[in-house]
Amino acid sequence: MDFSIIRIARTVLHVVDLEVSRKFYVDGLGMIETESDENHIYLRGLEEHSHHSLLLKKAAKAVVEVLSYKVEKEKDLDEIEKLFISKGLKTKWMEKGKQHAMGRTLRVHDISGIPLEFFAEMTTVDRMLQRYDLYHGAKIQRIDHVNCAVPHVQTAYDFYVKELGFLCSEYTDTEDGNLWAAWLYRKPTVHDQAFMNGPGPKLHHFAYTLTDRLSVLDCCDVLASMGYANSIERGPGRHGLSNAFFLYLRDPDGHRIELYTGDYLTSDPDLKPKRWDLNDPLRQTFWGHKAPDQWFNETSTFIDIETGEEIESKEPFLEQRKPKIMA
């Protein structure tokens, strides 16, 4: 392929009340507010030198506008457009200046209908990595990955691996050998993009990397003291998949965010994907405890890149169910 995708780079969310969202993300989680106006808040982690990795946009309804990937060079955008057009998939250019702090971007719908965006240019800012006086809440460092529910995981896997150049670190299949979930990467960690079987396309969660496990626990204390105890949905715990220490939260609009630390390097070209059986009790949580029901069946809705209308969800190819050990 004639292009190079670097990493997942930002999430664009619609939220109902910016002040309520600011309190949660800035005061609670400790994200850096780069800029804001009456309709937008641009947020980033302490380690990040890009202008933002999370854009909150004021709207009447909470939905997901787009998931953005950074590419190596401007020319890559044109090559990616050719690929998507050749597959009969929708594309849309947003010229430089259309979006604050962004260069030219290409928006598309992938093979599952997920709205994606590719860009090479974003305004850079100072890292806050050694501004320890600004560390509070979860001390969020950088964006790590997104996880989407899709009707046919195998189709999504094939498109991302064969057409977009992603690699697979870990996967889950069923008793019959059907692909249930996959963890795919471009940067050398466990994943940038995960897919799980379910009605979709939907965003299950987006995730940020923290420095250590203590930061996860500190975040729980801070959120509880601020009255956000009910926002803690699952964890703290350790995944079997990825080995990461995790915490799942729901923001004031119901979007799910994972705080994540402790996965592993995937840069070696001879790294072989790790297989997990769907019914392995250590797969989702290494300690074996169950996830709440809503973790399996509640997701955020995507919107169309042209119309802005909510994308209709399709039922999964495989019958949706919990792992048998958890049923």
Any overview of this molecule?
A hairpin with a 3-residue loop joins strand 2 (32-36) and strand 3. The chain has two domains: 5-119, 2,3-Dihydroxybiphenyl 1,2-Dioxygenase, domain 1, CATH 3.10.180.10; 140-301, 2,3-Dihydroxybiphenyl 1,2-Dioxygenase, domain 1 (Roll), CATH 3.10.180. With 327 residues, the protein is α+β, with helices and mostly antiparallel strands. The chain has helices at 18-28, 74-86, 153-163, 213-225, 293-297, and strands spanning 5-15, 32-36, 40-44, 54-58, 64-71, 91-94, 105-109, 115-119, 142-150, 167-173, 179-185, 193-197, 202-209, 232-238, 245-250, 256-261, 274-277, 300-301. The chain starts with a strand and ends in a 26-residue tail after the last strand. The protein contains five helices and 18 strands.
Short description:
The chain is of the alpha+beta class and 327 residues long. 16% of the residues lie in helices and 33% in strands.
Name the descriptors.
dioxygenase; 2 domains; 327 residues; eight-stranded mixed β-sheet; 33% strand; 2,3-Dihydroxybiphenyl 1,2-Dioxygenase, domain 1; 18 strands; alpha+beta; aromatic hydrocarbons catabolism; ferrous iron binding
